[in-house]
Amino acid sequence: DMLISAGNTRLQEHCLGVNATVGPVLNRKFRMLIDGEFALDAVGGQTSMLAGITPRFLFNFGALALNVGALFDYSLTPDGGCLSAAPALEARLRLFHGRLDIFAEATGGQKLNSLHDLKSFNHFFRRDDMFSTVNTRVRYDASVGLRGSAISQFEYGLKAGYRKVDSALMNAFLTTNFGDIQQAYADVFLVWKSERVEFDGNFHWCNTQATNVSLNAFLPSAFSGDFRFTYNHLRRIFASLAVEGASKMKQADHNGPSRGGY
Q1: Which three-class secondary structure state does DSSP give residue 67?
Q2: Mean pLDDT of 118-128
Q3: What are phi and psi of 149, to 5 degrees?
Q4: Is residue 128 very low, low, confident or very high in pLDDT (cuts 50, 70, 90)?
Q5: Is a pLDDT exceeding 90 seen at residue 258?
Q6: pLDDT value at residue 182
Q7: Which of 5 and 136 is assigned the larger pLDDT?
Q8: Residue 199 near residue 228, CB atoms below 8 Å
Q9: Reported pTM
Q10: 205: Cβ–Cβ under 8 A, 6 or more apart, which residues?
Q11: Are 51 and 34 in contact (CB under 8 A)?
């Protein structure tokens, strides 16, 4: 339960989420599982729900692991219901005694956008700005990447992909908007941990095309990232530096002014 101040109104929001996995382990190389999920959101006299089921097969061939399945979900909001299907596929190859993982995956599915989610995305959002409940649907999100460690102190990861999303959350002037997007993206993370020094950084790039958006909506920043550096002396004195930044956000119709980066 959450008490949220949205505009001039104080609203009580109730959220419930349940996830479960069942299935037999047939042998060391093959498993058959069924994942189930249920989400409920009630706020301002409106109730929305989402239920999904994912039957999948897991194959283990030593260094190679395969996860083959499909997600079927159904959402019900005051505006009606929506039945959808999405892939649930993953292939993972583990090399060098587990020090390097190479993977490819394709996922998707629906998501309830609670008032808490919308306020967290943009704290200027007001309940009055949304006359009906809007759910986000990821039609597909296909990606490849790798994750590993070069030495015991250094970890790294790289992921690149392409996704198509209906009713994706988008920043707008003093509120949150929605739009259908197609987006190419890449993410990099770096981590260094030693006795005296710790560093972690996350860097993101994307190229977004959007349709069905209002004139005041902004595309996501093409470049964004953050990093944190910490030094300690004998684990008694700590000094840290944290930096976060993003490039400018262009208006979705490419004709209006951009929002500056930071």
Answers
A1: strand
A2: 76
A3: -140, 130
A4: low
A5: no
A6: 97
A7: 136
A8: yes
A9: 0.86
A10: 185, 186, 187, 222, 223
A11: no
Single-letter amino acid code for the residue at 255 = N
**Tokens (6 digits) for 15:** 């959220």
Residue 111's nearest CA partner among 63, 54, 41, 180 is 41
**DSSP codes joined into one string, 130-197:** -SS---EEEEEEEEEEEEEEEETTEEEEEEEEEEEEEEEEEEETTEEEEEEEEEEEEEEEEEEE-SSE
Q: Residue 174's Cα: distance from chain center in Å?
A: 23
Are residues 77 and 88 in contact, defined by beta-carbon separation less than 8 angstroms? no
Cα-based angle 183, 185, 189 (whole degrees, multiple of 5): 155
Q: Which of 189, 188, 179 is nearest to 134 (CA)?
A: 179
Residue 126 has pLDDT above 80, yes or no: no
Range with the largest mean pLDDT of 26-30, 111-115, 228-232: 228-232
Both tokens of residue 159?
């992921």
